[in-house]
Write a structure and sequence with these properties.
The protein is α+β, with helices and mostly antiparallel strands and 200 residues long. The protein folds into two domains: 6-149, 3-Layer(aba) Sandwich (Aminopeptidase); 150-187. The chain is built from six helices and five strands. It has a five-stranded mixed sheet with strand order 1-2-3-4-5, with helices on both faces. Strand 4 (81-92), helix 4 (101-116) and strand 5 form a beta-alpha-beta unit. The protein is elongated and about 95 Å long. The termini are far apart.
Length: 200
């Protein structure tokens, strides 16, 4: 039996519909509802994403059938460190796993990084996804940072709460200091005794 032909190519605007279908499937696997996933990923949004500077998607096919994709973005790191290539999404359909699809996609990422002059590739992987973490670890990816995310509105609310709490603490300390200062003054203030002049 002939081995299936595995191919990895850079996705173009004409592939937006195929990528949207694969992305929706990956979202369903992660627990997103179909309606929400379908609204989030439409061909128009995929085309816009592919047109962004620094964004690339690679599409994997087995005998011409789309079976997976990877999305990478160029990341600038601080003021000094050179830019690196970040793997933001990697997905292989369940029926095509354990056939080298993910490895082929990452091979395409390595080739893309070399062509763009990037010395480092890093992957964003959920801490709860043990299989993916083991997969990347076997390929030499090491844990370097813990990435934390917060909605902007939540950060604003937390900062406002922290500022208010800090003001309350400061005012409380000032009141305590004033109270202590008042007590100390009362304790050290000299007592004046009024004496009546002696009768002559």
């Amino acid at each position: 039996m002939a081995r299936p032909h595995l191919s990895v190519t850079k996705a173009k605007a004409v592939d937006a519909g195929v990528l949207a279908t694969l992305w929706i499937e990956s979202a369903l696997v992660s627990g997103m509802s179909h309606d929400l996933a379908a609204r989030a990923a439409n061909a128009g949004r995929i085309r816009e994403a592919l047109a962004r500077p620094g964004t690339s998607a690679l599409l994997a096919t087995l005998d011409g059938r789309p079976v997976g994709f990877v999305v990478v973005n160029t990341r600038n790191q601080g003021l000094i460190e050179p830019a690196a290539l970040a793997i933001d999404e990697l997905y292989v359909v369940s029926g095509a796993r354990r056939q080298g699809v993910a490895a082929a996609l990452l091979g395409g990422v390595a080739k893309l990084a070399e062509s763009q002059g990037h010395d480092v590739i890093f992957a964003n992987v959920s801490t709860t996804d043990k299989l993916s973490n083991r997969f990347f670890a076997r390929l030499g990816f090491t844990s370097t940072v813990t990435r934390r995310a917060v909605p902007t509105s939540v950060l604003r609310r937390k900062l406002a709460g922290s500022d208010a709490a800090a003001r309350d603490v400061l005012l409380g300390k000032r009141r305590t200091l004033r109270a202590r200062a008042g007590i100390d003054t009362a304790q050290v203030a000299p007592r004046l005794t009024l004496r009546r002049p002696a009768a002559g």
